[in-house]
Automatic annotation (TrEMBL):
Its main location: membrane. It comes from the Bacteria. It holds the Pfam family ComP_DUS. InterPro entries: Bac_GSPG_pilin, N_methyl_site, PilE-like, Pilin-like. It is found in: Membrane. This is Type IV pilin protein. Keywords: Membrane, Methylation, Transmembrane, Transmembrane helix. Gene3D superfamilies: Glycoprotein, Type 4 Pilin. The chain crosses the membrane at residues 6-27. The keyword Transmembrane applies. It is a single-pass membrane protein.
């Protein structure tokens, strides 16, 4: 008597359906995790830049004028930070997303937070 070895078409289709269900659950969860991680990277970078600006003000007679982020690592894989609107008593930092996210985060000397990613990143 000949016994056949292998899988039937129905067994293979059941395996494919199970894999599809697992992928449908796992892929959106993974992308949400990656987005949250990139948001945290941006928030950490802009907060570090704000600390750098406060050190600059303490070393320069209480003024933010002519400040630059040259001594601060102002770029990461996912965000880049620049100073905008720097004056003697105020500044605005803008962290622009360079990875999967699309938008920016802003922070002022008065700790006013904003930007197009503020809602998505819980900023």
């Amino acid at each position: 008597m000949n016994t056949q070895k292998g899988f039937t078409l129905i067994e293979l289709m059941i395996a494919v359906v199970i894999l599809a269900i697992l992928a449908a659950i796992a892929i959106p969860s993974y992308t949400q995790y990656v987005d949250r991680a990139e948001c945290e990277d941006g928030k950490a970078l802009i907060t570090g830049a704000a600390n750098f600006m406060e050190r600059y003000r303490a070393q320069n007679g209480g003024s933010y004028a002519n400040a630059s982020l040259n001594g601060f690592g102002s770029n990461s894989e996912t965000f880049g930070v620049v100073i905008t609107n720097a004056a003697a008593a105020s500044y605005t930092l803008t962290a622009t997303a360079q990875g999967r996210l699309n938008g920016n985060l802003t922070l002022t000397q008065a700790n006013v937070r904003g930007g197009s990613l503020a809602g998505q990143c819980n900023w």
